[in-house]
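Lecture 7 notes: from sequence to structure.

We start with a single chain of 358 residues. Read the sequence below before looking at the structure.
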Amino acid sequence: MALAIIVIPMLVAILYYVFLASNRYVSSSQVVVRQAESGSQAGIPGLALLMSSIDPVSREETLYLREYVTSSDMLNYLDEKIQWAQHFEGRWNDPLFWLPKDATQEEKLEFYQRLVTATYDEMTGLLNVEVQALTPEFSEETLQNILQQSENFVNEISRSIAKDQLAFAQGELKDAAERYEDSKAVMLEFQRSSNLLNAQATAESRAMVIAELEAEIVKEHAKLKSLLSTLSNSTPQVRAQQVRVRALEQQLAVEKQRLVSAEVDGEKLNVVAAQYRRLEIDVGIAEEFYKTSMAVVENAKLEASKKIRSLVKVVQPNMPEDSIYPRRVYNLIALFIILCLVYGITRFVIASIEDHRE
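Now the structure, written as C-alpha cells:
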C-alpha cells in the first residue's frame, strides 16, 4: 500500500521535477491607477503621490485594470505584438506547461492566466502584476508590453468618460443657444410687425398720460366750481374754464380709447403689450437657460480634468536572474507530506473497516 500511495507518486514527481519541469522566470511590477496630478504636483515621484491626499488612488479603475490584464484582449495584444503564444508552443518536454500549436482561444486564455497574474492589495491599493516565462528576457518584455497597453487602457477609459460628459453638456448648450436665438428672432419679428420697440413701455407711457390728464381735470373742475361760486355761467371766465374742462375730458377719452381700443396690426395696444410681455419672458427664460448651460459646460471641462487617470509604476518591471518556478524541493516536500497524510487516512479507514467486520 505504501508503495502505491507514497513511493510511486514520489518517484513520478522526482522524475518530473528533475528531468521534465521547465525553469520559469518571473518579472513583477506594482502599479496603481490614480487621479491625474494637479499643476503643483507635477514632477513628484509616484510613491510620494500615493501618500498624498490630493491625488487619491482610484480603486475602481485599478480593479478594472486587474481584469483587463488577464483578459483575452490583453492576450490578443501580446500575440500580435510579441507572439506570446509561440514562446510556449511545442515545449512538449514539460507536460504541465505545454501549449499545443492548435490550441483554441479558450485554452490559450486559460494557459495565459496561469502564467500572468494580477493581484490587488486592499491595504495599499496596489496592483501586483507577475509574469512567468521560459527566459528572463521574455518575462520582462512581456511585462513591459502589458504595462504599456494598460496605460493606454487607463487613458482611453479616462478620455471616454470625460468626452461623454463634455459632449452631453455641449449638446445642451447648443440646444439652449438655438432656443435663445429663436426667442430673440420671434421678439424682433414682433417688434417689426407692431412698429413698436417696446409695446409694454408704450402702454405704460399712455397710462401715465391718462393719469396726468385725470389729475389735471380734477384741478380744473375745482377751479370751475370756484368761479361758479362768484360768477354766473354766462361770464367769459366761466365759459373759458368750462371749455378747458371739456377739452381735457375729451382728450382723456381719446387717450383711454387709444390704450384699450386702438389697434396695432389688428390688435389693441393692451393686447399687444400682453403679447410683448409674454415674448419678453420667453426671451428672459431662454437667456437664463443659455447662461446656465454655459456654466455647465465650463464645469464639465473642470470635472473632466479631474477625472483623468494615469498609471503609476510604483515598482518597475525587473529582469529576473534566477528562476523562481518550479519550486522543486518545496513541492516535493509538500507532496510527500500530503501523500503521508493520505496513506495514514487510508490505513485508518481500512483498520476501522476490519474492526467492524470482526
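The chain has ten helices and six strands. Keep this in mind for problem set 3.
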